[in-house]
Design brief:
The protein is 28% helix and 22% strand. The chain contains three helices and ten strands. The longest helix has 36 residues.
């Protein structure tokens, strides 16, 4: 209504239904605004019980870092304690006393072997399942061994007992490596005026292999070698040598055998 002329300008008719509609509309709009603020803005993190999705990952990462730091701190503490004990001349070993089991009586134990145990021991000790040479029986000699050729070359002098030539001479190229014929242990590695540099290998089943006239030895006494492993360098050392070759011998049960019967050069 105009203040001067008291003329009516705007009129509003209020009805119960209109008021209900207006209040409902305002409520819906306000609810939509609040939900939008909570769902799509960072304000939601301030609501109790409504956390950020990335916060859980951050908490897990911080927990892992804290655990790692505690582990490192404990390790450093232990290191410093041990260092302190060493500087003071104390023993750093930790002696853990095992508690005695009092539920059993150990003073009446029977340590004698049973017949089954003795039979098993005999079978394992006399069998060939764990022999270094597969398929070889100790009762049938060395025919089942697979001998690795010390060098690849030509045989210039064969085995001859009458002439006391207890091995074969195999000529090969200079600087060729001489290889162990079987698994074994070096029992001798030295030099003599007649045979030059000589190396001997003890194998299983009372077998010995000998390699003479080498230019250099690659292994020392007491070392374990595998079949095919280089043990020397071919040469012509010693008074009985006339050129680069290796004199190769095989001894079985104290007697020489012809290497050409078992090795392909």
């Amino acid at each position: 209504m105009d203040d001067d002329t008291f003329e009516e300008r705007v009129s509003v008719t209020l009805t119960p239904l209109g008021i209900l509609v207006a209040v409902s509309a305002i409520t819906i709009v306000m609810t939509a605004i609040v939900v939008s603020l909570i769902a799509f803005t960072p304000i939601r993190v301030y609501i109790p019980g409504y956390g950020d999705m990335g916060m859980e990952k951050d908490v897990i990462t911080l927990t892992e870092k804290t655990d790692s730091l505690m582990y490192e701190a404990n390790a450093q503490k232990l290191y410093l304690e041990n260092l302190k004990k060493i500087l003071q001349g104390n023993d750093t070993a930790v002696n853990i006393q095992n508690p005695t089991d009092t539920t059993k009586k150990y003073d009446k134990l029977d340590y004698s072997r049973s017949p089954e145990d003795s039979a098993l021991r005999s079978e394992m000790e006399t069998g060939d399942e764990y022999s270094l040479a597969l398929g070889v029986s100790r009762k049938t000699g060395i025919s089942g061994y697979f001998f690795f050729a010390p060098v690849k070359g030509s045989v210039t002098s064969s085995f001859n007992l009458a002439e006391e030539h207890f091995g074969v001479d195999v000529a090969s190229a200079d600087n060729e490596s001489v290889k162990a014929t079987l698994d074994g242990t070096i029992i001798s590695a030295g030099w003599s005026p007649e045979d030059g540099y000589v190396i001997q290998v003890q194998h299983s089943n009372n077998l010995i292999s000998v390699y003479k006239h080498n230019a250099a030895l690659l292994k020392k006494t007491g070392q374990f070698v595998k079949a095919g492993e280089p043990i020397a360098i071919i040469g012509s050392s010693g008074e009985h040598s006339t050129g680069p070759h290796v004199h190769f011998e095989i001894w079985y049960n104290g007697a020489p055998v012809d290497p050409q019967e078992y090795v392909v050069f």
